[in-house]
Amino acid sequence: MVDIERANQEAVQRFLNSQPVLVGIGKALDVIPGMTPKTILHAGPPVTWDRMSGPLKGAIIGALIYEGLAQDENQAIELASSGEIIFDSCHHHNAVGPMAGVTSPSMPVFIVENKTYGNKAYCNLNEGLGKALRFGAYGEDVIKRLKWMEEVLGPALKEALSIVGEIDVKNLQVQALMMGDECHNRNRAGTSLFLRQIAPGLVKSSLPKEDVAKVFEFINGNDHFFLNLSMAACKATADSAKGIKGSTMVYTMARNGTDFGIRVSGLGDKWFTAPAEKIRGLYFPGFGPEDANPDIGDSVISETIGIGGFAMAAAPAIVQFVGGTVKDAINYTQSMYEITLTENNAYRIPYLDFKGTPTGIDIRKVIETGILPIINTGIAHKKPGIGQVGAGLVNPPMKCFEDALIAFAEEYNIE
Amino acid sequence: MVDIERANQEAVQRFLNSQPVLVGIGKALDVIPGMTPKTILHAGPPVTWDRMSGPLKGAIIGALIYEGLAQDENQAIELASSGEIIFDSCHHHNAVGPMAGVTSPSMPVFIVENKTYGNKAYCNLNEGLGKALRFGAYGEDVIKRLKWMEEVLGPALKEALSIVGEIDVKNLQVQALMMGDECHNRNRAGTSLFLRQIAPGLVKSSLPKEDVAKVFEFINGNDHFFLNLSMAACKATADSAKGIKGSTMVYTMARNGTDFGIRVSGLGDKWFTAPAEKIRGLYFPGFGPEDANPDIGDSVISETIGIGGFAMAAAPAIVQFVGGTVKDAINYTQSMYEITLTENNAYRIPYLDFKGTPTGIDIRKVIETGILPIINTGIAHKKPGIGQVGAGLVNPPMKCFEDALIAFAEEYNIE
């Protein structure tokens, strides 16, 4: 008989022991395992072109133009439908990507190593809010910015990091939680602390100072810059708990805009998917719920390891961005203790007397209590080419957890 | 009959309307009104050399050596006792200084203008924690750092500011309160946000990049860097409410390490002083209450205008630095509403549902309720030459408020 409690303790202990550190910045093609010149990675569980949502299609159109594989939208759609491009889940390549999560071969990516377990994780760099590839926009400005990120930002950060040395991302997350971030939809502190740490390296780098100044202006102009680095750290943490025999702990949650998928430690690589839910949120002026795509993105890797929506009590000011009251934010965090295995030993919430965040979702507890994980998230327009229209709160479909529990019972012969 | 309520509304409205903006960085001798080559400004109400506390004497010894007016400690003491040096309160020169607050002619200072009322305020730059002039230390390292601040840091910030343009300090304070600072003893967010804003200017400046990198490293290494800029902003705000006929609102609180002094809007320049109190605090390893000097410094200008100790509910993590529990921090803020005139319209506390901070101390309410303003503060060693030994909480002496109320009754013929 499998000892589930013991397996879960081992699994969640791996989350707690993880030490994700930024060790480099590289080109996706060079550093992401299994990447090819014609591979496009995307957020969430695997999905075929014909089933992809508008924003994911939009981001892929943009990526094909950015890579020079297509000249325009029509060519890009033709190529994407041709079968010539390999689409795959970021998660199958130790990677994550926010919203559409589209990661193409030329993009610069953060390389985060989990120093405790030796595994690595990757995430591309954040473009800013509004019209951005990850929300499905692919206008000229979007492509131009991606080129600048490839040619200036990526190399600048790479050289700066080599000067200042590896950066302990978990430490930045821990500090950011003391400063009103929850490290998913509020990243102002994390972005500030990252910039402070890498700044001397940027200044000492060999880049022309106009470029260095632009890098500072770009990061200063985007309070979400830290998100993608934080996500890579969460992914490096999450993957360390994969494949613990007998564990019912979730180690992946992800959405591709069509499906929500979870993976469970004791069930290896298998995805449990169901249609992605609608988001309850605040919309930018001129947009409303009828414009919204269902839930999309890998950024829910934050909640998977105990921050983001699970740490909203640390970030009261986030309600101005995702809706609700401060009391709601505290209640969301409190309710997550019902479905998790432990309190985090590093991620802490000042207003709950420095209590550790609820960490390690147990699919059994989700089914028993009927409480679903709380996720805060950006909202993409449902049509390709438009971009972000708001931000809000969402849950995974219960079916993912139900199917996973049935599969777990079968796998381990539990009646 | 004077209309006290109306006068107080006018006084506190001036606090609320104030828009303190960083407009320049200059040399104290050049920019502070009434500064001379032989003037040394200090924190708190005026005090003569013979009555000065250890840390204030230590800081003055250091300043005289730094200015080249003395070669060593003995010469400095001789000069300080000779009557040749003009000692005066920072507050008499539109200035403030943390702890000893010693400001000498060659020091670079922030120049903050209150855009609403046109008045200016000044504060020197923060040296960091531990062995620092403002805590009474004057070793070789302290003097060397002051020289570097004069020769590199000040000019670098001055040029950078001229490139990025004026910086709205109130806006930085408002954001910092959303990020777990209370802008007195926790300034990690404020320091980060200031650095983000000035960074492109530093990079574009004409300084050698080694110097620019050192400036980034210095500010990144000192989470209190923002304090002195914030204090100048508070002083610019506070002074705008001076001299409102009939107002019982406090517009200055300050300590020189011997005396605590307050000034009241309707009573003009007059100080009401009493012996400074002992601080209840956390000590650095190797130090204890027997080492502590009584309360010292102008940083209580923060509490005077509604932040610092009055905003501790915004900064739960500060209890790790000054002692107490998170609940205490919230209670301190809550109790300050009892002795203040209004809720701030800009400084807000996320955890109290974005309620404005308690703003504008009314001496009548202090006497009626018996509740004294709460101040959080650093602790200096009582002997010259040692430096900071801890941080904690303190109140002003009740006598300041009692004497002020008696004087108010006399001034306005109230029985």
TrEMBL record, chains A, B:
Pfam families, sorted: AllG
Coiled-coil regions listed: none
Recorded superkingdom: Bacteria
InterPro entries linked to this entry: AllG-like, OXTCase_su_AllG_h-dom
Protein name: Membrane protein FdrA
Organism, scientific name: Thermovenabulum gondwanense
